[in-house]
Design brief:
single chain, mainly alpha, about 80 residues
Length: about 80
Amino acid sequence: MFSFVLGIGQPPIEYRDVIRADFELYEKIHAGLHLRGIECELDGKEPWFLCEAHSEVDVDETLFALRDTLKELRQ
């Protein structure tokens, strides 16, 4: 289980840190992943989960889709 907290300068310590995150950016990332066939948690405050059913290919596919999405958003 892991999550992203975007747009804050330091790792979050408490919930108030998390609610200052850039949820608009998270939603753009979510949309980019969705377009690339990757389903992830829509709520930027919720964690992502990995399980034994996810193969290394699944993880690679997700990371490549994330990379491509972030490159697109930087333009």
